[in-house]
Automatic annotation (TrEMBL):
Gene Ontology biological-process entries: vacuolar acidification
Name of this protein: V-type proton ATPase subunit a
InterPro entries noted in UniProt: V-ATPase_116kDa_su
Organism, as annotated: Perkinsus marinus (strain ATCC 50983 / TXsc)
Membrane topology annotation: Multi-pass membrane protein
Lineage, broadest ranks: Eukaryota, Sar, Alveolata, Perkinsozoa, Perkinsea
Keywords: Hydrogen ion transport, Ion transport, Membrane, Transmembrane, Transmembrane helix, Transport
GO molecular function: ATPase binding; proton-transporting ATPase activity, rotational mechanism
Domain of life: Eukaryota
Length: 302
């Protein structure tokens, strides 16, 4: 057992090396977690003697560069996967909104909600269009099912009951399409701005409501193409990531540990060595007091 020769001055000449190794350990833990979360993988480990017999094959500088390179690659994989997944979910949500615009029956060929509700009114001279005709606007999007009731109450109370909210559940998800109808003569009315603020505060996703059935059909075709492309891209990405992970699972030598396990053991060994060296005093000639069994005295001198 070594005694700390630097306890009074708190001098740790190898602290910088330990910090580098701790950063390597953090990256190795991240890579190990990513690999172990993949299906049908097995990490070869617990072959300590084999590692100790070949630990001179690694150097701190070269292994640090390799671990950092692989770590940055997996970080890019992770970021790209999240981005593509979010884009796919957004496309699926928008597709359901557009489909519901047709199924609700509020779209006619070439006409949308901007058409006056009352085209005209009878008079003694015939029918004429009202100058102050009534029009309806709407805001549509997707909300989580657990937030559906509270969202509807919030909109109703904030608008003093001057809105009507309709929900349609999206199959195989915990989400619903919502459509908020309100009376408005312009798209930039005060009521529209208020409803938009409520939606932003709640955190729901808003999508454009088609102006007519023809536009809805065209958007459905475009979104289905986008969704198919995103799913193919995600499938290809998953295959590429799995291939990269297999390189970390392969043993470096016959009967040895997986590459990721060898990296982990090297970090443990190096950190232990430098932590022990920090207990020594001196720079060129290092000295340290330690306790050892008397029976091991001769072997230690050798």
């Amino acid at each position: 057992m070594f005694e700390d020769m630097n306890s009074s001055v708190m001098q740790r000449p190898y602290r910088r090396y330990i910090q580098r190794i701790e950063e390597m350990e953090r990256m190795v833990r991240f890579l190990s977690k990513e690999v172990e979360n993949m299906p049908n993988v097995e990490v070869s480990k617990n072959r300590i003697d084999d590692f100790l017999d070949h630990d001179d094959e690694f150097t701190l500088d070269s292994l640090e560069a390799e671990v950092k390179r692989v770590y940055e690659r997996f970080c890019r994989f992770h970021s790209n996967n999240e981005e593509m997944t979010d884009e796919l979910e957004a496309a699926v949500e928008e597709l359901n909104v557009v489909k519901d615009s047709i199924s609700t029956g509020f779209l006619a060929a070439g006409e949308g909600l901007s058409q006056p509700l009352l085209e005209g009114e009878p008079t003694g001279q015939g029918s004429r269009r009202r100058e102050d005709h009534m029009q309806f606007s709407n805001i549509a999007g997707v909300v989580k099912m657990e937030d559906q009731e509270s969202f509807a109450r919030t909109v109703f109370r904030a608008t003093r009951g001057n809105t009507f909210t309709q929900f349609v559940e999206i199959p195989d998800t915990r989400k619903s399409v919502f459509v908020i109808y309100f009376q408005s003569t312009t798209a930039a009315s005060a009521m529209s701005a208020k409803v938009h603020r409520i939606c932003s505060a709640v955190g729901v996703h808003i999508y454009q409501w088609p102006s007519c059935k023809d536009e809805a059909m065209q958007r459905i075709a475009d979104l289905e193409t986008v969704i198919a492309d995103k799913r193919r891209a995600l499938a290809g990405f998953s295959k590429y990531t799995l291939d990269e992970a297999r390189s970390l699972l392969e043993p470096i030598r016959m009967g040895g540990n997986s590459r990721i396990e060898e990296w982990r053991l090297f970090c443990i060994e190096e950190r232990s060595i430098y932590a022990t060296l920090n207990l020594f005093e001196g720079s060129v000639s290092m000295r340290c007091d330690c306790w050892y069994p008397t029976k091991d005295k001769d072997s230690i001198r050798e």
